[in-house]
Amino acid sequence: MSTWTSVSKLSIILVSGDETCDIYANGRNRIGVIISIAPTDGDGDPVEVDSAHLLDRLWLIDYVTESTLNWNGTSDWCYTDTTNAFTASPGLSGERAEASFDDDGTQLVTFYVYCAPGVSPKSIGVQVKTDSDHIIKSSLNGTHQAKVRLNPRKAVTYTLADVTWDYSRTSTKYGDDTKYVTTNAWNYYLSLRSPDNYFVTFSVSNYFSGSGYDGFFACNITPDNHHKNFYGGYVWYHEPHGSAYYFDNDGRSEAQVVNFPDGNKWWDYAKIYNRDNPDQYLCFTWVHSTTGGNGWHLPNGPLDTWREWFAPEIYAYDRYGNWGAFWVDGGDIVGGLNLYELNQ
């Protein structure tokens, strides 16, 4: 078997096909770069190198100083072989980078570059070490001169002024059956206020998570009229939003609300994620349900007092990894759901 001793081609380009682009300096925005490499043996003939082995023999470097970027680092300029949700580049799904072959036999390797706040623009080249320990570089003074240039932008932190928080009436599965219970429900929608950008993922905490109560975060059964008025708040945090709550039989996304199986023998399902592009917003549901007789029965599920609540915290990230932090006041839900900025 021939020994890999050199390369006949070594170049680097952005996944987009460009040589330069911007990047948000937030440690999350990852820009894909493709390395094209044609390994050869001592006679200059092509050699096929195992994909995993090839990945281990490649480094991204500063085009001018030839110093290596930080592998899986947390400071300065870094790179890795996995992407994430925070890139505007099409076709990147978070899979591990793999070496592949171009039509002419050139092997292609994809890395992903990211950077910490405060860095300066960077021109990036590539270095390879063959099986004969021959080091070849694409750099200012290297054998090859291909490079890409990334220009950092200041990271963005979103505030209430940058988001929309609106609501609309929604239906429930048993809403037409008002013999014992009457339910009015509204969906609230948290989204980014931008014509060309949007949130791609949300990290949510503080809610009940047991079966039948998943996402339930606030209950207020007011003392008036024999505890007949139930006000509830729900956050539908499972991702992807477009499929996590979808039921083929009903042809819609829905989730359980007003769950009082003991005593009242009642539960319902609200229609949720009922707007276009559900993965670009976070859906909440607010309900007001009234019942007759002796009112709502406790205990039921996690509820053993008339008023219980969490204050959900939401970290919303756009497609570049910029984020905003918010919270919903579960202690004040009689009139609806209120969104606030979370102090960091």
Outline the structure in words.
This protein is mainly β and 344 residues long. It is 3% helix and 45% strand. The strands form five sheets. Strands 1, 3, 5, 6, 7 and 8 form a six-stranded mixed beta sheet that branches. The protein has a six-stranded antiparallel beta sheet with strand order 13-14-21-17-16-22, with no helix packed on it. Strands 2, 4, 9, 10 and 11 form a five-stranded mixed beta sheet that branches. The protein is elongated, with a radius of gyration of 27 Å. 36% of the residues are buried. Mean pLDDT is 93; it is low at 89-95.
What's the arrangement of secondary structure elements?
Layout: E1 6-14, E2 20-25, E3 31-40, H1 51-56, E4 58-62, E5 70-71, E6 77-80, E7 100-101, E8 107-115, E9 122-129, E10 135-138, E11 148-154, E12 157-158, E13 163-170, E14 181-192, E15 199-205, E16 216-221, E17 229-236, H2 241-244, E18 246-247, E19 252-260, E20 266-271, E21 281-291, E22 307-309, E23 313-318, E24 323-328, E25 339-341
Parallel strand pairs: 2-11, 5-6, 12-24
Antiparallel strand pairs: 1-3, 3-8, 4-9, 6-8, 7-8, 9-10, 9-11, 13-14, 14-21, 15-23, 16-17, 16-22, 17-21, 18-19, 19-20, 23-24, 24-25
Summarize the biggest pleated sheet: 6 strands, mixed
Strand content: over 45%
Oligomer: single chain
Low-confidence stretches: 89-95
Mean pLDDT, all residues: 93
SSE arrangement, N to C:
EEEHEEEEEEEEEEEEEEHEEEEEEEE
Q: Tell me the total number of β-strands.
A: 25
Brief description of this entry?
By secondary structure, the protein is mostly beta strands. It has two helices and 25 strands.
